[in-house]
Specification:
11-stranded mixed β-sheet; 954 residues; 53 strands; alpha+beta; disordered N terminus; 24 helices
Amino acid sequence: MKVLELLWLPKEQSECSLFDIKYQAKKISIILKTDEALSEGEAFFTLIDRTSRQVLKFPINEHEGKEIFSVDISIDNHINYLTTGIWDAYLQKEKNGTVIKTRVKNKLSESIEFPPFYVKNSNISFLPYSTIKGNLSFRCEESKAILRVENIALEENGTLLLSGYFLVPSWDVKKSEDVRKQLILHSSNKDINIDINNVARSDVSTLFGQPDNKYNWTGFDIRLDFSKNSYELLDEQSTELFIKMTFENQEMMLPIIIPPAVDLNKTAVFQTSEGIKNIYINIDEESQGIALFVTKENLQAEVEAIYSENGEITLSGRVISRDKANEVSYNNAHIVVRERQSVEEYQIDIEINESYFTHTFEVKELVDRGIFTDGVWDLYLLVDGQMNRLVTRLDGITNKQKLISIPQMMFSDAEGKILAVKPYYTLHEEVSIFSRDYLAVKSIEKVEIEKGILSIVGKLNIQPPNIDFPATTKGKLTIKAQYGVVYELPVTWQTEKTGKTKLEFQFIVSADLGSQGLLEMSDSLLKDISFDLIQCEIQLEKGFVPFTMNIDPAKVISTLEDRLKQNGKYKRILTKWGLRFYKACNKVLPINRKNVIFQSFHGKSYSCSPKAIYEEMLEQKQNIKPIWVLNNLKQEVPGNPILVRPHSFKYYYYMATSKYFVNNGNFPDFYEKRNKTVHLQTWHGTPLKKLGYDIDPNSLSYTENTSPQISRRNARWDYLIGPNEYTSTILKRAFRFDKQMLDVGYPRNDIFYKTNLEEKTEKIKGKLNIPKNKKVILYAPTWRDYDFHNGNQHKPYEFKFDLRRFKEEFGEEYVLLLRLHYRDATRIRLQGYEEFIYNVSSYDDIQELYLISDLLITDYSSVMFDYANLNRPIIFFTYDLSRYGSQVRGFYMDFQTEAPGPIVLNEQQLFHAIENIDKIEKLYNQRFKNFREKFCHLEDGQASKRTIEAVFKN
């Protein structure tokens, strides 16, 4: 038995762990501890690159204690290695030719956060961290700004205290007074900037190993006394806290993050000149960022119990008066229900007895009256002419929105539409009623027509109660196609709960095209299936459930290969062998000089400059074999080119054997450019926001935009198109492009200078089914990720102007086109506006939308540069300009002084600008002219010809 133990039991290795790390200018000292003294032989500290397996060995220095030793690493001597990748730490023992490596443990990072070691010459940080298994590793990353709040306190008298340090390692600051620090109080209305004190922090220099008190300038100390100063904060409005620091022409702004495990008083009630107020500190669970919320507390309507059952929502609570000087009269009290987006409100009588109240909402009755329909409805108590938000702040429970889920109920409105209604807690512990769609599409897996049956497979999220949701039910699909064609299809829905989440159901919806006489229209239907959102309906016993579905053409089964990939096993095999097939073709097959690959936006559309160049080549009757990379294999493309879907075998074959590549973005990383092939990069817009190496190295997006992968992709380009001198200069610098720049204008803008514009406009309007006598407003806002990810991704898209009033004001003269990001487009609700508002978010070519538009409404989007070619008015609807302030200051152009149209901040200003658009055109005439001279000076309708002459002349 003992022999077996000797054979099979592993010999226990001694443990080596991190004891301390110290920085000294250009040297890192790592102190290690072992559980036994180093014995005979040699010992080294080694770092091994996780990807390349490069090994760096460092001698150790023994201390007086035999189990403690140190290692000194000179960064300058290893600058070629320790500025990229992840390096794992080992203790390496060598004796008599035997090498034993022991992973160094890191038990300190759990309790101590080591700062990054800054490598000045390369603007890289070398950062020690603990792996999932508790081992010591070092990560090389682009140096980032560091904001540390070390102390935070909210005193009972309403004073907020903050202190810490703010460091941008790359800033070479000589004197503290050269740095300006400001606290930014950011709300949806505006930003309040407050200068804050600089505090000398020699300890920060020591911590980062910098000599001569190099980082003394980093400290700050903040004191806000809300009892004496409101700092212009509005009641009942969330205010986020940032610190902004400026030095010379550089600026950095970061949110204030709460230190981990801090014990913080989060609320204070205090007297002000405006009465009694309460300030709350809300902490975001994910980011740990803080926001302040100030309320009037003369009167508090505290909800103590909420019941949601049997078609009723009951609220019980009490009214607390903190104003002892004035007696409150509870006569003529009301519950006020206010829809958050439209501010539509209703009053409901309520009785208050000795400060206590109870009210029951009969939800079905209210839904039938148009109350508690789609959206968020905020609840107020109206007493003595004062509106007081219903809140739940005295129960000692914070973050109730995430901790407590109140049961929701299902109701149908007067038209039979089913809604899910529930009370819920807001981020600030207020009480609201949330009414939402009963279900929504989560994902689409495939779309196909087989034996005359159209079927769509995917997943739904169905709100509770969903236990008794029928496995099979009837409904319909409404598919809008080009030229006003509408397919009304009766369908069968089959659903089954997946068990992965409480909401997720697998679905198959099917329609018999033969019974509808649509068999011959199968190809047309699949071609237009993504033209607009599909309006869906499921019939249930209590009513119907309407929702929308957005189809990605890549999900349409068009080939045998598509069908095989529906099987997981075959998909893995085809994916693996597809790449091998490409590599084999790339090595052995000859390049076909006539093959030209065209691609726009990763194959999502037939559009942009590749389309314009291709159509000009057709016009010139160029002797080429065109290949278009498209998700939609049913797409109508003139000239009968070969259409290939990304990552199909056909795609891999042409990617390996083609001579020319025309793209407005980059091809995937698998693509290896062959000798004597030509890559034309058209790019896809005049830049507004900073790109590539122009991004501030301290910005979080710098690493992503300058990664080695992106640099390798950019190195494939042989030609790069510049639409104007401004853009050419930026692209060359930002992408470090040193090959041939084509200053020819944008081929995609040639369409604006053609002679047949009226005929073209009429054809596009016909395709969209827009009445000929109507003018067109195009609304094309930028995507706001902060809004989408702030819990709104499952809520209806929120317009910042009232659609009903917009239609009332302008519906006689105009139609409104909506060009939204696809994530926002799936959330729009346009019922009742079908003949006034057109969703063109999936329309292939935005240039054609510009052509038919009489007025553009946008914000911080680069659509302004192309549209300016038409010399038509632009309105900039920047309702969140205060929030975008720091980003706007990071634009290439001075947005607020160069924008060729009025910058409006709210609905009233927007409507006024539209009503007076002729006067505005005249008012902004000179600025518009200057804008065109700067950004459109190369445009004359000949950019495609000049590009072909430069690239394909041989």
